[in-house]
Specification:
Number of domains: 2
CATH class of the largest domain: Alpha Beta
Mean pLDDT: 91
Oligomer: single chain
Radius of gyration: 17 Å
InterPro entries: Dimeric_a/b-barrel
Structural class: alpha+beta
Largest sheet: 8 strands, antiparallel, barrel
Low-confidence stretches: 1-18
Length: about 240
Amino acid sequence: MDYFPHLLFFLGVNMSANASIENQTRASYIQLTAQSGKEADLAGFLGVGAQLVYETEPDTLLWSALQSQDKKTLVIFDTFGSQAAQDAHFAGKIPQALSGKAHELVEGGWDNGVIPNINNADILAFKTTPNAMSNVKIATFIPLTAKAGEEENLAGFLKQGAQIVKDNEPDTLHWYAIHFGGNKFGIVDFFPNQAAVDFHFAGGVAQAMQQHASTLVEGGWEDGVVAGIQAFSVIEFIKR
């Protein structure tokens, strides 16, 4: 099966007038499990997806494809400036193409392997680094479940976390705090290397989370935060 090679596309082409990385409000986190033996094919398909985003979706502000160390799990994480832009993305060429290939590439196919794993979210706070695309190599995702009655407090904590990252972590290139709804939250961040990952997880946000997790997060620090950390290689990354 022929695919375009992995590509990184650069800033400033075909952007709509109102599309700005500084106006991100919505995100999607989509986790896919590759069919056995189809890990490379699914990764390659997402390489084609990167090109489609670049060519046809100026209002998709960030789009990334991630892959777990065992190659089996792939993730699409993308951001938008409005609900309308997010809706346009899901009516666009990538979902159309994936729906036609999912039965070959994704465990469960389109109906059971893709649709149930689309998780849309509000962006609570973020940090982005200008021109940081070609050096984005590693991503992490931390799902968080707020304790009952602590949803607003956890949201507030995550908003403060964004400022800590901005002030103290130049090598945490992109950092997102997202709210999936109800008591479900998450953190998605991107790094150039393992040293930057290690620095982040020893830094101010991690230290503050460790202090407050027992109050804010189901499972506390060890079972509610640390146990949920997922690491990925970045195989595609586009930022407007």
